[in-house]
Amino acid sequence: MTTGNEMYSWYAGFVLALGISMVLLVKAIQTLPIGTAYAVWTGIGAIGTVLIGIVLFKEPVTFLRLFFISTLVASIVGLKIVSN
Fold first, then answer.
1. Which residues contact 10 (CB under 8 A, 6 or more apart)?
2. For the segment 27-84, what is each residue's pLDDT rounded down to a tens digit?
């Protein structure tokens, strides 16, 4: 169970990450189409969430999880490559 101070630390981290994420999305929209920028933004968030779960919360690391994370990364890179 988390204490009050630990909980506020998580909230502060969330707000900081959200702010940075939004600033980076705005910057991405300046050079990429909105659909591509949003897809990349959500993909990075999904990958980050899975990796945090694995590293911090000891979620299982299976072949299929890593395989689908890698396909998501490949899709993000592909979208960036074809969006000029």
1. 2
2. 999 988 898 899 889 998 999 999 999 999 999 999 999 999 999 999 988 988 888 6
| Residue 32 DSSP one-character state | S
Query: Domain spans of the chain?
Result: 4-82
DSSP 56: H
pTM (whole model) above 0.70: yes
CA angle 18, 23, 24 (to 5 degrees): 100
Burial of 83 (0-12, 13-18, 19+ CB in 10 A): middle
- Within 13 A of 46's CA, how many CA atoms are on the CB side? 16
